[in-house]
Design a protein that fits this description.
266 residues; alpha/beta; Rossmann fold; six-stranded mixed sheet; 8 helices; 10 strands; binds adenosine-5'-triphosphate; binds magnesium ion
Length: 266
């Protein structure tokens, strides 16, 4: 396994009137290729902001993101757009499917944009849709699909170009429990099988079982990094008295590497 994503001291501040909001506050972590990470935390803790920075859609106020050895945050905007198209796949809550293209065409569009529209690519698009349970919906337009089906098309689209990094913000938000498990499980399998780095934001703590590590943000900072086999009580209730103490390894004191926190050998 190689390091796919390095996040170095990322801070993002917004000015709101005379106040400064620190949406992301000095966050560092890394993700290996083949590793699936769940980013959790209360509403407003900075998860979407962090994901947008990782996607190259938002520039941080300070800090650096390196993806596959390339400093995303140092690229010029045009270079960043090109890099994003080929190396980063993302499925955000507003899934931005093209309304007049079918599910299959929406996925294939990414092949065209990347100059990769060939027989192998088209087969990959079909295979991904099948794997996400959309065999009988390939020729449907987005408005003919449920919210959850649209999200699955967006996930297929995010994976089509062999991205180094796959990002999804609340991919299960409009799914029933069974479908949510299926989608996250499939996404985890695809990340593992295809050696991508995957990060999903989720409110649903039942989904963290599929993650290799869980990064919890509270107030813009990393509160803890754990693995699903650890005690997860503090994920549900980070404000509980017994949970307020941030583990020293996360802060990188006592000589441990914060990037290795929560990472088990398996
Ligand atoms: N464009 C903006 N201008 C000002 N403040 C912003 C902006 N975007 C986000 N924020 C603030 O930054 C903080 C983090 O927001 P963010 O959307 O990253 O949270 P989140 O963890 O994704 O929350 P949720 O779980 O509700 O989606 C919030 O306090 C939010 O109000
Ligand atoms: Mg959010």
């Amino acid at each position: 396994m190689t390091v796919a994503v390095e996040v170095h001291s990322i801070t993002k501040t917004y000015s709101v009137g005379s106040n400064t909001v620190r949406a992301v506050d000095d966050v560092s972590f890394s993700v290996m290729s083949g590793e699936f990470v769940a980013l959790v935390g209360p509403s407003g803790s900075g998860k979407t902001t962090m994901l947008a920075i990782l996607a190259g859609l938002l520039q941080p106020s300070s800090g650096e993101v390196i993806i596959g050895g390339v400093s995303l945050t140092s690229l010029r905007e045009s270079e960043r757009t090109r890099f994003r198209r080929s190396k980063i796949g993302f499925a955000f809550q507003a899934n931005n499917l093209v309304s007049y293209l079918t599910a299959l065409e929406n996925v294939e569009l990414m092949l065209r944009l990347n100059g990769d529209y060939d027989t192998a690519g088209r087969r990959r698009a079909r295979d991904l849709l099948v794997r996400l349970g959309l065999d009988d919906r390939m020729n449907s337009l987005p408005r003919q699909l449920s919210g959850g089906q649209q999200q699955r098309v967006a996930i297929a689209r995010s994976l089509i170009n062999h991205p180094t990094l796959v990002l999804a913000d609340e991919p299960t938000a409009s799914l029933d429990t069974e479908r949510a498990h299926q989608v996250v499980h499939t996404l985890a399998d695809l990340v593992h099988d295809q050696d991508r780095a995957g990060i999903i934001v989720t409110h649903d703590l039942r989904m963290v079982e599929y993650a290799d590590r869980i990064v919890q943000m509270v107030d813009g900072r990393i509160a803890r990094i754990v693995s699903p086999s650890d005690d997860l009580t503090c994920l549900a209730d980070p404000e509980a008295d017994s949970c307020t103490e941030i583990p020293p390894e996360v802060l990188g004191i006592e000589g441990t590497d914060p990037w290795e926190a929560g990472r088990n050998d398996h």
